[in-house]
Design brief:
Length: 167
């Protein structure tokens, strides 16, 4: 089963309006759409960046997968924002696997943000990132699960910003 577009919202910021982006954001919309991402989106727009934002730039009936694939591949930097429900979304995991592929093949810079999530939970698929994989394993082939876990491990091992309740 393919992930559904509403599982994970994504956006990308462009400085030139073409299919090449400066920044690709991957986030679980259900978790952070009305707080952190709203502020980040506004800051990017205020900085003069053209932001590809799912609720503004995707048209009804448009094939989302290929659009997001082009945005990821055409980006210089990807910023996955890990929240407690990020791994619940098959769509977010698909995006992350694509981001890691671009990181490996095109040296794309990946700058993770851990939003109320311990980076070790991402890296090792523990905490909120553990239980959901038992469900994913019932639905997806082992090679897909492996690519998602590998991607979480790679990005979880990168230095990123940790935002938690105490900061």
């Amino acid at each position: 089963m393919a992930p559904t577009p509403t599982d994970c919202a994504s956006s990308a910021a462009s400085t030139n309006g073409s299919s090449s982006y400066d920044i690709f954001l991957s986030f679980r919309g259900e978790d952070i759409r009305n707080n952190f991402i709203s502020f980040l989106h506004k800051a990017l727009k205020d900085a003069g960046l053209n932001v590809f934002f799912d609720s503004e730039n995707l048209w009804t009936g448009e094939a989302i997968g290929p659009t997001l694939q082009r945005a990821i591949e055409g980006s210089k930097i990807s910023i996955p924002i890990f929240s407690s429900g990020y791994a619940d979304s098959k769509w977010c995991l698909w995006e992350l696997a694509q981001i890691v592929q671009c990181h490996r093949t095109n040296n794309q810079l990946v700058l993770p943000i851990f939003f109320h999530v311990d980076p070790s939970h991402v890296r090792n698929q523990t905490g909120s990132f553990e239980k959901i994989f038992h469900e994913h394993e019932k639905e997806f082939k082992p090679d897909i699960i492996k690519s998602w876990k590998d991607a979480l491990g790679v990005v979880g091992n990168l230095k990123g910003d940790v935002l938690d309740e105490t900061k």
